[in-house]
Amino acid sequence: MKKYQLGEFEEIVMLTVGILYDEAYGVAIKTEIESRLGRSVSVGALQSALRRLEKKGYLNSREGEANAHRGGKPKRYFRITAYGKKAIEYNRNVRDGLWRAIPEMALDLKFA
Asked: I need a labelling partner for 11 at 20 to 30 A (CA). Which of 59, 85, 90, 102 fits?
């Protein structure tokens, strides 16, 4: 199971990088996650997750053009690697299998 292990936040970051594709850089990833999930994301937590995912080989990054608006600092853009694609597909398959294994009656609950 540890072969493609992803935490919940790591999985969210990976999927968001996929959604943003060529525009996946820190601020855009943060904004997209906050918009779609309605939860706030700290810059530090996001940067840590991006570094971990890159270290695991699930993402790679490249620097964009330097920008005077950013004080001459270039944006770092992220992309899912082939190994990263296997990781998110593995996680989706595991989750789908677990959902299919739940007996229908186990989720047939009524709220009072």
From this structure: 102
Q: What is the DSSP string of 54-85?
A: HHHTSEEEEE----GGGTTPPPEEEEE-HHHH
Domains of the chain as residue ranges with CATH: 8-106 (1.10.10.10)
Please say whether the beta carbons of 41 and 34 come within 8 A. yes
C-alpha–C-alpha distance, residues 75 and 101, integer Å: 43
Fill in the amino acid letter for 90.
Y
Which residue bears the tokens 């992803």? 6
